[in-house]
Amino acid sequence: MNKDAPNSIFRRELDALRRHGKYADFATLTQCALKAGLAGREAFDAIFDFLPRSWNDRDRSAEAREGLTAFINAFCDPPSTKRIAEYVSDNALSPFVLLDPADVRHITYFCRQNDYGKGLSELLAANNTRVLSDVGELAPDEKFEVIICQPTLGFRRFENGKSDRFGACIVQKLSPHLAQGGLICWISASGAVFDDHAAGTSAALFESGLEIAATMDLPPDIFPGTRLSGAIIVLRRGRVAKKLVGAIRNKEAAALVFAAFRKGPARQESSNWTWLDPSDQRNFAIIEQARFIKKLMPKGRHSSLPLRALLATETIKKADKPIEAAEVSAVFLYVPEYAGSAVTADLEETTVKPTAVYRLPIDPTKANPRFLARLLNSPFGRQIRQSIASGATIQRTRAADLMELSLPIPPLVIQEQIVRLGGDIGLLQATLLEMQQTLDNDWTVIADTTEKVDQLKSQLDIERRIAEWWRELPYPLATVYRRYQVSRDPKERLETLLHFFEIVAVFLATLGTSHVKVLRTDWEEVLGKWLHPKGGAGIDRSDFGFWIGLARASIKDASRISGDPELRESATMRAGPELVQLAGSIGGLGKTTEFLEVANLYRNNFKGHGGLLKASDAKQLDEKLQQPVRDLYEILAPFFRRFYLVRPGLAEGTDTGIKFETDMLIGSDPTFSKREIELDRMVKSNAMAFWSLGSRTMCRALPFFRLGAPQQPQETSVYVYNRVEKMAFAGFPIRRRANRSFLLPMMNSLGSSVLEGKARDRF
Fold this sequence. Notes:
Rossmann fold; 5 domains; single chain; alpha+beta; 5-stranded antiparallel beta sheet
């Protein structure tokens, strides 16, 4: 009997039920699974695939769910654990702990749903398990070494005049059955501990003799049907000297956090956990954000001062109020109460109504308001302003919180130099813009404008930098661009340039969609719409225009994630603040698609598209495409100086993170430079990823393209979804359809729902 035989029998049993018009509830599905010979986790996985979506929403949180299950099972593995109790809400149907038939441990499941309880009893009848409907069915003296409790969110019960919406009353009912030295793993929303409205929850647990030994952050999509951030709250009896806070995003992180908990309090900190005093109410997300802000802080000599210390008076008013006599000698800084709006030193420059702008009187002997405006508008300043903002729809900053904001303040002479240099750069930009506008309106000034531009070019050496751009481009973009620079045949030169534009579109589409996948909980639905649009060609017939559209949509969504408060909060919990910050940088690449569309227009309309093109026409088209090259260079060159395509290799754990031997894919040579990169989180080895210079996290690249082994000496290949381009896109396509053995592994890594449509049927 082959490996798939039990699953085949199970499906045939279900087909028979459907033909007879019978409803397949959990108990019926259990009987079919047992009849097919399925057992344990394999049986649960088979059953859950056929349950309604309202029962089983695990697909959206598979990675986080695996990490949560691994963390809880780690508590139940020690030999001292003999008896386990598991109380889960109706929506979290799959048990966290499953015992083998030969297991010496005993587990008690609590289930209030008769259908599920009946099926669970039959499915686990051979193990040392039992299923009860309520805690009241336990004997008064019955004890458990580990109690797992996940009450229904929003569940309220009034006892002693108090109400609770996080299920603490269920924890209190279970607490008398906790053995000495035992642990309660309470899975709830993070507000159960960190919400101001839940202040009575901790007090009620303390009255029950329980104290918090650890709190672990869970991603927002861990609870089906909600976007609430979750937490594992580990409770034990007795005095707690230190408590552990951490984040569980996958199985690897769960193992590291549990090892730290088992080892006990330590002075050192990790990328996944740290120890705090029991009275400290911060969660790990707040600590992680503080670490990120510290990393963004500008380098150089400075003093950390609260914004209050820089004011001429303590009076803070809105900008629409009249200036008082005590403020006459001050200079003003205008800070919008909206965290995402720009800070200015001139009220005329702000884009927010004066009624929503704080007017701060700055002491000119302590700080320059224009320097403060630059500081608060920088990535560091925006991050610290967002950290003190609150609001579900529009994040606002309170004046009291703004005054306590700690800022790095250099000496006043340094502030003046920074403001002056910033002004000089702005003046150059304004001059260039004025020259462009003049040239658009008056072509007779072309000689004068050319002379001025040549002077600037000679100083900045722009032409040489553009010609040698391949030294900074990631492979394989660098290979194509270098081949274009060294080509002498006009036709070959034009074709290579057009292929360069095309692979840039593929690269940007991969960059955007990869970050969207990591940052969004509903990435399968979003990517499914992009890859298989209604009424248009999808990825199964991808062309230049498709990749441009995918790049445009994904880059725009990355910008939206970094700017929308709800999406940003969810993405931060899911992937950390660094990747959210990087998404904002990716959002700034949106204008590149306009220049790629220009190249696409020439590619689709020139007379020699099929290869019949005169050398003179090819040279003319090459010259016309120089402006899009310059436009791309202006936007992408600064970006590629800090964003890299990499391939992590061997990993080594350290006290401060995980160190990877990494291939840096820079330049045209396929033999890449090596570099050791230390990260806070695990990444998959030998898989291409995007990494920003200095970042402690990577984003795994979706497999829209991969690097192939040389097919002949001195040849390289680039595989782009459904085709193979020899010599890194340097010539015409060799084979328009890649083989099945290559495509299927690549496609499966995208997720099943993304493949719905023609692509799945075709391959």
